[in-house]
Specification:
Chain lengths: ~100, ~650
């Protein structure tokens, strides 16, 4: 079985990144936006793992970074959900469009 | 000579009354405020009588001359070594005399107001304002330098404004208070410039030093101020004339008198205090204070004489035609102050020729008593009849016996009938005038006849003439209203017997008053003629006054309309000043100054309108800007930064 070329995997991670970006810009629901952010993070993770595997097979730095990012992402999700809950309490909604008092 | 600091208490006690009643009066001291104010002033009066006793009889005199004593002095603002603004108390014959007059008349008015103003909504405020006025006036008379007198001068103006506008729900009172304030302010501009001129050349503000320097022919200051000139007139003359403008404004001299009749909108006791006895003589006092300077400046003294005699004569004519009793009294005040002014004008410094100075101060002294008595009497009448108009009055002598007697005494006093107070002072003025200027003397003589006529016209119209039906008869009012009348009546009878020349003279030395019986005959006859004419016309109800006023035609109408001076002022202000200066200035203000500011504001607003859309408050748009920024940076660094 021939090895999957690097460009294929980079294509997947780039696709994942832009899907996440698209979701972040278009969705109004904050939970969905949070999920989109997770997608973006994961595309970065894929990049780290893939470059580690293809360019420096005898090192593990990229993999460590990935694990680090997953940890941070977990903490970030906790914070984000706390924000969402507070937003819901104050606005009775988690639609970002309702939270626009801070304009001009 | 130990004048300890108790003298400072004389003005400070009324000030304490003002602060106390002004802060707490309306809430906590509503009923007791009158008693508090009167009590404090009673102490002040006692202190100033004591001061006067001490000054005149114990230690004021050194050798044969009354000294000028600086009781208290401390530097308030020091600008340079030469010029500093001090606060001080000066004691000399005129300031001590004024202390007594001001506290005494003010005390009478305080007592009178206890009855007159009873039940007013702003009773406490009224007493607070009276306290403020008394404080300012006392501060004015004991000022030791030009700047201090200017400060108190303005304070007096403010309290006068507040008291004229006391009935602030009456539009006419508001207009009158504004008019009084604006006219006197306008005059005070002259006063201020005069002060600056004198202080600039004299290099001091202190009265004693200033007078000393500028009367000494050899001093550098004297040479500087007499050689400097503007349009051919020396700086000394300019300075004194401008100071006199300030004095003329406060003393309601022609042509700055227009505020005084309107000021009668205030409560009547206030008119008695401020607009008859004390504040309006401040101008005379000012000229007297600087008299050594005026006496060496012929032109300034001639202006004083001319303004004084014109005011005296004009006001007397107008007073004959007015129908509002308070306005008659106001014009009579103006006329009497005119007397005091020209008496100063015809005087010169020192010795026998200083008779006019003594006479002027003497007339100020006696006038304070009989004129405040007239006003308080008018207050009783107005209180009784609820109207100011002569036509609503008549035959009141049965209802108001005490007022009737006291009013009669005051009328005799002002008409100059012996032995009442006004006789002595007026004789002295006429005598002084006859020594120096015959024209002034004859006009003054005619004026004194007119004075007798219009005062007795007033007296007969109120107390005799037709019968008035009085339904609700509540008498003359409480004791607090009768007592001041009685006291002032006694003063009006006996004040003239004081040998005034012994105490007050231009140079502090005793002035022997020659009482010339032959000279007195003519003025007394003229006064009696005025009284008889008034008796013939007004004692019984008749159509004689109407016939006479008809036969005088235009003259009567002009006098009735106060010689159209108000109209002239209105014409000048409305038609000329407003159109030529006011409107262009307003146009510039509205279109150029405001336009510039509005332009800046509008530009800013428009720019912010453009860019404020960026800050939409939508998190996702911010994320897009952020992403766009990253992309742009990436493009710059990857492709363009090579």
């Amino acid at each position: 079985m021939a090895e999957i070329p690097l460009s294929h995997i980079l294509f997947v991670s780039t696709a994942l990144f832009f899907i996440g970006m698209y979701g972040l810009f278009t969705r109004r629901n904050m939970i969905t936006m949070l999920m989109s952010v997770e997608l973006i993070l994961n595309s970065v993770n894929i990049n780290f793992v893939v470059f580690n595997k293809y360019l420096y097979p005898d090192k593990l730095d990229g993999v460590f970074f990935t694990i680090f990012i997953i940890t941070i992402a977990a903490a970030e999700a906790a914070v984000a959900i706390a924000i969402i809950i507070n937003l819901y309490r104050s606005h009775r909604s988690i639609d970002v469009e309702t939270a626009e008092e801070m304009k001009w | 000579m130990n004048y300890s600091s108790y003298i400072a208490l004389i003005p400070l006690l009324p000030l304490a009354g003002f602060v106390l009643l002004g802060l707490f009066g309306r809430k906590y001291l509503k009923t007791s405020s009158g008693i508090i104010g009167t009590g404090l002033l009673l102490v002040s009066t006692a202190l100033s009588l004591y001061t006067a006793y001490k000054y005149f009889f114990v230690d004021g005199k050194v050798g044969d001359t009354y000294q000028t004593i600086t009781a208290i002095k401390y530097t308030w603002l020091s600008f340079s070594d030469n010029i500093s603004i001090d606060m001080g108390i000066i004691l000399d014959p005129i300031s001590v005399m004024m202390l007594v007059v001001v506290t005494f008349v003010s005390l009478m008015v305080h007592i009178f107001s206890l009855g007159y103003m009873k039940g007013e909504e702003r009773f406490a405020t009224y007493y607070a304002f009276l306290g403020l006025f008394t404080f300012s006036m006392l501060g004015l008379v004991i000022s030791s330098n030009l700047f201090q007198i200017y400060i108190f001068w303005e304070l007096v103006g403010v309290s006068s404004y507040l008291l004229i506008g006391y009935y602030y729900d009456k539009p006419s009172a508001v207009a009158a208070s504004k008019k009084a304030f604006v006219v006197t302010r306008f005059a005070d501009l002259g006063f201020l410039i005069g002060i600056l001129i004198l202080a600039f050349y004299g290099e001091t503000l202190d009265f004693n030093t200033l007078i000393q320097r500028l009367t000494d022919q050899q001093s550098p200051q004297f040479l500087a101020i007499t050689t400097a000139s503007f349009v051919g007139v020396s700086a000394l003359t300019w300075g004194l004339t401008l100071i006199f403008v300030g004095g003329a404004g406060k003393s309601a001299m022609f042509p700055l008198h227009i505020w005084l009749p309107d000021a009668m909108e205030g409560p009547t006791p206030v008119s008695a205090l401020i607009h008859a006895a004390t504040m309006v003589v401040a101008g005379v006092y000012l000229v007297a204070r600087l008299f050594p300077l005026f006496s060496i400046t012929v032109v300034a003294l001639e202006i004083v004489t001319a303004v004084g005699i014109v005011s005296a004569f004009l006001a007397a004519i107008i007073a004959c035609t007015q129908t509002d009793i308070k306005r008659v009294l106001a014009y009579s005040t103006m006329s009497q102050i005119g007397y005091m002014m020209f008496a100063l004008g015809v005087s010169s410094y020192g010795g026998e020729n200083g008779l006019g100075y003594t006479a002027s101060m003497f007339h100020l002294f006696t006038h304070a008593f009989f004129k405040s008595l007239l006003f308080l009497g008018a207050g009783v009448v107005i209180h009784f009849i609820h109207s100011n108009e002569i036509k609503d009055m008549g035959g009141l002598r049965k209802y108001l016996p005490i007022t009737n007697i006291s009013f009669l005494v005051a009328c005799f006093a002002i008409a100059g009938i012996p032995p009442f107070a006004g006789f002595f002072s007026k004789e002295e003025i006429l005598l002084a005038a006859s020594h120096s200027n015959k024209i002034v003397f004859w006009i003054a003589l005619i004026t004194s006849g007119l004075t007798a006529f219009y005062m007795f016209r007033l007296y007969f119209s109120i107390f005799w003439n037709k019968q008035t039906d009085v339904q609700h008869h509540h008498g003359e009012g409480p004791v607090s209203m009768k007592l001041p009348l009685i006291i002032l009546t006694l003063c009006s009878i006996f004040a003239g017997l004081i040998p005034f020349g012994e105490y007050v003279s231009s140079d502090g030395k005793t002035l022997e008053s020659h009482f010339d019986l032959m000279f007195s005959i003519l003025p007394v006859i003229i006064g009696v003629l005025g009284i008889l004419l008034a008796t013939w016309m007004y004692r019984k109800e008749s159509n004689k006054p109407a016939q006479i006023s008809n036969s005088l035609g235009g003259l009567y109408k002009a006098a009735y309309r106060k010689f159209y001076i108000d109209e002239i002022y209105l014409f000048i202000t409305k038609k000329i000043i407003f159109n030529l200066i006011g409107r262009p200035a307003a146009w510039i203000d509205r279109n150029i100054v405001d336009g510039l500011m509005n332009g800046i504001a509008n530009t800013t607003a428009a720019a912010s309108g453009w860019i404020k859309g960026i800050q939409s408050g939508k998190v996702q748009s911010y994320a897009i800007y952020f992403f766009g920024g990253i992309v742009a940076l990436a493009i710059v660094f990857l492709y363009l930064w090579k």
